[in-house]
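Hey, can you fold this one?
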Amino acid sequence: MSVIRVLGGAVLGLAASIAFADDPDQAIRATLTKLQPNMPIEAIAESPMTGLYQVHLKGGRLLYASADGQFLMQGNLYQFKGNDAVNLTRQAESKGVAKEINSIPTSEMVVFSPKEPAKAHITVFTDTDCGYCQKLHSEVPELNRRGIEVRYVAFPRQGLESHGYNTLVSVWCAKDRQAAMNQAKSRQELPAATCDNPVAKQYELGQMIGVNGTPAIVMGNGELIPGYQPAPELAKAALEAK
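Sure. Predicted structure:
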């Protein structure tokens, strides 16, 4: 269950039911455990704002809480520096996403690399049945020409019982994954293939970091861009984010 859904209806009535605790970590964990027993908490620490604590969840998501655990908030925390507003939440979440994405071995991806050493890379959560994923894939040669390595991970939008899931499994289990991806993105049926594969694991990871559609593009610094972007704009963003 996503954190957003959990917090959507539960927090308002929670304040009176959580006992005060002297230890902020303990108090905040008690609150979150009451909301969702298996909430994947990685760390709790003081935020840059005095009196507010930030809860790091597995996958990079961030929540905020009062020291006594009686108040929870999900949203963006900004810091104003002169005339600029810095989104501290986005910065912290991007670091968490980058950590998760960079932990995926490239051997578990379908990778399209430039002929010359790559200047930057993007990681794309993809579904072979997705029209905009197909459009983005048609521009992979242009991205490669601009020095961008494209790393695909699987995200079957319709779930693990869908046609897209079966096709993605066939891609990952093919002897030549690149050729199989090209074929699938050209709307050609692939020979069914099965093997030990990371498709379900990558789908779960996508959900955990906030992917809810495809293509979802993760920059080298963990910034998540939802939806298709033309190759020139995407290459520019990738180079700026490396």
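Residues 88-102 form the longest helix (15 residues). Let me know if you want another pass with a different chain boundary.
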